[in-house]
């Protein structure tokens, strides 16, 4: 078969999207004409479409060696350099293309995009204007120029893009850019419409599907988001945003394939902050701490102003008993985002652990923290705990503290060997009648004592805890309230349970007085000092057995049973406690 016939056959297959078949014929032609520039260029385009940019660049370079005056070859080479994250090489070859043919408007457009990527917005806009001077109908240049206004004002960018959409309603790129900006400015309904319009105009658009996936995630439509991201990756295996979105969805679903997707993103873009940070989160959940530490450190280097990553890195360092480094990172995170309460919770816990080896230094740090942020309830609690002073009103602290822990509370207490609910259930035996579970949390006590013979009410200050308890379907009623205040206002119960509540009260007299005449089952951490109770460095109160027994006797409890037990493990040490049952 002649060269011309083979070439036309390959070209037809190429245009029809049958790249593998076209490539086979191109390579067959090269066996007899190894340096044929048109064939080398077309093979380069095949490699470019396959995402093998190093091979594409080699083929384009060979084509240019054989035909150095072909401007389109320089343009194609530049585009592969761009896809391979080599903007300077791309810029050089675009300029060479324009030197040969100043009429390539798309080259100005691409040059402008590179300057924008390099942060040189003025040069970018200068080249978009040149592109439009060369070809007024080049809608991508108009869209890019309008989108660039977001650097000063997203509202202005949206206004100019909306004007472009009115003038060119069938331009998919305009609707795509609008969908991005609507998404960024929380105009979700408009974003859905714009992204849908972009997908309708360009059915093979991977980018519009990414926006649709991000919108679906925002609305917690996880499966829908997954479908959008998967289709985007299928359309363009090099789409980093789609790969990252899919990795995040899979990570939330604990799908092992998430790790592969994160690694692929980092192959394509080694400096992708979100990929490092989110992959680190995945590794941390899998308890692969050394690997997580490496990824968090990479993320911090890329973005030292991310409070969340500094916080997460600190948690791992704290687990490895690197308290100095952990505290430094946490205070840095707090300065970056004072409103993120998780940081304050972690500071409190890290100071508590640090105090076990250096209480004097931990106290100095707590004093400075409270001095700088006296309104921070966690700073106040840390200082009081390290000084061993009583907290006047612990309600706000308790509510905030347990709101933070609600999502992974059961995993945490399981790892600590938390045994109070089971011990309380064993001591109480069969529970019949109306029952209130004070400080019910996620329902660990309720799971043990609930039966068809009782009516169970759960009370907690943290709404997230109540939400978790509600999902179990074991409570007949759930109430957001302070435990003692609720008990004082509702004396109708037959049974009162309070697991791990005393640790946040200190003075137990109000609770025990309100429980007079009922069956009361509760736990305390054991204290053997001279005081009736004491705020420990852990931030929880410990109580003397004699103090509790005297209060129970004072308020008419006669059949008092107590059982000493290990409530949980903390910092490798057993936390000794007592379960009391009075009636």
Q: Quick summary of this structure?
A:
64% of the residues lie in helices and 9% in strands.
Topology:
Blueprint: H1 3-15, H2 19-32, H3 37-50, H4 53-66, H5 71-83, H6 87-100, H7 105-117, H8 121-134, H9 139-147, H10 154-167, H11 172-184, H12 188-201, H13 206-218, H14 222-235, H15 240-252, H16 257-268, H17 273-285, H18 289-302, H19 307-319, H20 323-336, H21 341-355, H22 359-372, H23 377-387, H24 395-405, H25 409-415, H26 420-428, E1 433-438, H27 444-449, E2 454-460, H28 463-472, E3 477-480, H29 483-489, E4 495-498, H30 509-514, E5 519-526, E6 533-535, E7 541-543, H31 545-554, E8 561-570, E9 573-582
Parallel strand pairs: 1-2, 1-4, 2-3, 4-5, 5-7
Antiparallel strand pairs: 5-9, 6-7, 8-9
Helix pairs in contact: 1-2, 2-3, 3-4, 3-5, 4-5, 5-6, 6-7, 7-8, 8-9, 9-10, 9-11, 10-11, 11-12, 11-13, 12-13, 13-14, 13-15, 14-15, 15-16, 16-17, 17-18, 18-19, 19-20, 19-21, 20-21, 21-22, 21-23, 22-23
């Amino acid at each position: 078969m002649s060269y011309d016939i083979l070439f036309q056959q390959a070209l037809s297959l190429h245009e029809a999207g049958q790249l593998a078949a076209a490539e086979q014929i191109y390579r067959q032609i090269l066996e007899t004409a190894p340096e044929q520039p048109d064939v080398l260029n077309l093979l380069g385009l095949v490699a470019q479409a396959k995402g093998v940019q190093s091979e594409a660049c080699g083929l384009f370079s060979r084509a240019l060696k054989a035909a150095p005056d072909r401007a389109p070859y320089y343009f194609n080479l530049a585009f592969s350099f761009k896809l391979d994250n080599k903007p300077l090489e791309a810029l050089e070859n675009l300029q060479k293309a324009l030197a040969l043919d100043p009429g390539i408007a798309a080259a100005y457009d691409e040059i402008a995009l590179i300057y924008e990527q390099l942060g040189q917005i003025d040069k970018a806009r200068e080249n978009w204007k040149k592109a439009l001077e060369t070809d007024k109908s080049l809608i991508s240049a108009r869209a890019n120029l309008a989108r660039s206004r977001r650097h000063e004002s997203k509202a202005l960018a949206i206004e100019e893009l909306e004007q472009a959409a009115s003038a060119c309603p069938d331009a998919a790129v305009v609707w795509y850019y609008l969908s991005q900006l609507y998404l960024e400015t929380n105009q979700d309904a408009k974003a859905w419409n714009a992204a849908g319009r972009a997908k309708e105009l360009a059915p093979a658009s991977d980018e519009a599907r990414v926006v649709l996936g991000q919108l679906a995630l925002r609305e917690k439509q996880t499966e829908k988001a997954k479908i959008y991201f998967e289709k985007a990756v299928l359309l363009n295996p090099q789409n980093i945003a789609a790969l990252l979105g899919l990795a995040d969805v899979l990570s939330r679903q604990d799908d092992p394939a998430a790790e592969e997707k994160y690694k692929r993103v980092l192959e394509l873009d080694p400096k992708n902050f979100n990929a490092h940070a989110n992959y680190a989160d995945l590794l941390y959940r899998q308890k692969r701490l050394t690997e997580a530490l490496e990824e968090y450190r990479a993320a911090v280097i890329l973005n030292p102003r991310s409070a969340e990553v500094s916080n997460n890195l600190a948690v791992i360092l704290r687990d490895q008993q690197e308290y100095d480094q952990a505290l430094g990172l946490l205070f840095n995170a707090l300065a970056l985002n004072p409103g993120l309460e998780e940081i304050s919770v972690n500071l409190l816990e890290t100071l508590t652990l640090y105090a076990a080896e250096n209480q004097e230094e931990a106290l100095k740090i707590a004093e400075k923290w409270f001095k700088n942020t006296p309104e921070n309830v966690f700073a106040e609690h840390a200082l009081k705990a390290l000084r061993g002073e009583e907290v006047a009103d612990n309600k706000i602290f308790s509510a905030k503290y347990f709101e933070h822990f609600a999502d992974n509370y059961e995993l945490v207490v399981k790892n600590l060997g938390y045994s109070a609910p089971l011990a309380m259930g064993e001591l109480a035996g069969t529970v019949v009648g109306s029952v209130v579970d004070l400080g019910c949390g996620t329902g660990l006590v309720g799971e043990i004592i609930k039966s068809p013979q009782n009516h169970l009410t759960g009370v907690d200050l943290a709404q997230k805890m109540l939400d978790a308890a509600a999902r179990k379907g074991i409570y007949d009623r759930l109430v957001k309230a302070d435990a003692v205040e609720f008990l004082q206002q509702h004396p109708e119960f037959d049974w009162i349970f309070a697991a791990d509540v005393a640790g946040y009260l200190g003075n137990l007299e109000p609770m025990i007085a309100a429980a007079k005449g009922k069956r009361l089952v509760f736990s305390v951490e054991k204290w053997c000092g001279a005081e009736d109770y004491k705020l420990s460095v852990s931030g929880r109160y410990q109580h003397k057995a004699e103090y509790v027994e005297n209060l129970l006797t004072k308020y008419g409890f006669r059949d008092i049973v107590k059982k000493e037990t290990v409530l949980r493990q903390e910092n490798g040490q057993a936390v000794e406690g007592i379960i009391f049952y009075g009636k």
